Amino acid sequence: MNDIANPTQSAIDAFIDRWQDTGGRERANYQLFLTELCQLLDLPGPQPASDQPDDDKYVFEHRVDIRHPDGSQSRGYIDLYKRGHFVLEAKRVTEDHASSRWDKAMLRAAAQADAYIRALPAEEGRPPFLITCDVGKTIEVYAEFTRSGATYVPFPDPRTHRIHLEDLREPDIQQRLIGIWTNPDSLDPNKRAARVTRELSKTLAGLAKAMEKDGYEVERVAHFIKRCLFTMFAEDVDLLPKGEFTALLERLKDTPDNFTDALRSLWETMHTGGYSGVLNAKILHFNGTLFQDINPIPLNKEQINLLIDAARHDWSEVEPAIFGTLLERALDPDVRHKLGAHYTPRAYVERLVMPTVIDPLRDEWKTVQAAAAALEAQDKHDKAVQEIRDFHRKLCEIRVLDPACGSANFLYVTLEHMKRLEGEVLNTLADLGAGQNLLEMQGNTVDPHQFLGIEINPRAAAIAEMVLWIGYLQWHFRTHGHINPPQPVLKAFKNIECRDAVLDYDRWEYKMDESGRPVMRWDGKTYKKSPTTGEDIPDESAQVPEEVYLNPRKAEWPEADFVVGNPPFIGAKRMKTALGHGYVDALRTTWKELPESCDLVM
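The chain above was modelled as a monomer; its predicted structure follows.
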């Protein structure tokens, strides 16, 4: 991340001894505390403030003008500001850390820092980090890497965003603070995960291509690789014994004749739970549908080596928001050449998800927090707790639908942000002395059953379900540490439906001409280069039979509280060419209220 060396143990101990239990006033101590923290970590210290706040990039007491909804304006001072890095608000809280009053004071500090950030001049941009500091006790870190004005959330997660003074002994904590001060973008987990994910997808594409050359059907190859990659993920998050699946592959490369029997045995045990002979360990009960109808593909030594290359990556760091798209391309021969091409960036997904789903929920959460605080002030502790629990229950019942979900990147990003919010809610319950343990949370947590998708491509639909589970399990471990989720680990929620989201029908059959032969049409997707212009033009030799749809009707969607997504668009003039006359005729018959000029978003 950077070239700054970690401080010596003696220097850290001296700093902690100097500052713990110091007491005193915030204004008297915070600048000295932060200056000495910078010296401890070998970081540049703040610069003297000038008469021109616009010129001050790293200073104490940075002036901002706050505009209020009623049109009035007030002046504020950021305790420590580093442009493009962070806004820090310092407090000196006399309450004990376990006290709900301490937590409220720190939340007020975060709210004040957030107000300062929104008051910064637009040309300066928003910093990725918001920091609160209880001088000599605790540093709390919040992040918002899109810098789009979205909500700052605990970083890296609600379980570990709070850094206690004694935590400074940990090298990882030191490097986290050094990164915030020197290279904040290096801490963006999505950028790191995107890089890992692209590398993994290329490896999987090479393996898929090798198996297809051996004559195995594309669908069978896709299901085989999906099971392999989830097993690698399970190994890297300790749902399977650490390193044992990779070690099994290492053994099998020298005895490839045993490959299919070994994987079949492992996956059957993962499906039911119990003792695995090939790993010589007890295995959790995974269930779901991922390990049903197991049919491993025989691999030779070279192909097993490709699988080993994939297993050596850290699967715990894959980015579900793009992994599904890249995996879908890797497993589809028709679009594999687009593996390195553009995909919908996470920031674009968040531009839709945040204002549509997350911001309204966070506004409601702020209202609930205020109500709970008011009840606490009236010594109505039980009612305050119930206020929080009611909101958590609502959060666990919200249903989000993407009617053209593809490989679920929109659904996953929504799931992630709802898990972040849930983590804050559960932390608040814990601070109120009413935390819920995992047994209480069975069936009462934000999980994949709330995220509904409709997808016409069976390969993408299967990937979508797996993407949601990987994302959910990642956030489970970030929030709860090394505590396994309730078994079965995977559940057959059937929340991703593989079907048409626009048109339903009893069945289809081929359209026949007068001689009883199928009427053919261009397949709508195969192109060739024009010999005249060099541009892509339809390859009329790529023909498929025309279809007729019987008893067409409007497709029904499951009930949902929010609808998100980025469905494919087909203009009215291209519909029959791309989809066929039979399908478009069925659409026009079914959706009679729509004009002929209407485009299709499906």
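The CA atoms of residues 112 and 417 lie 22 Å apart.
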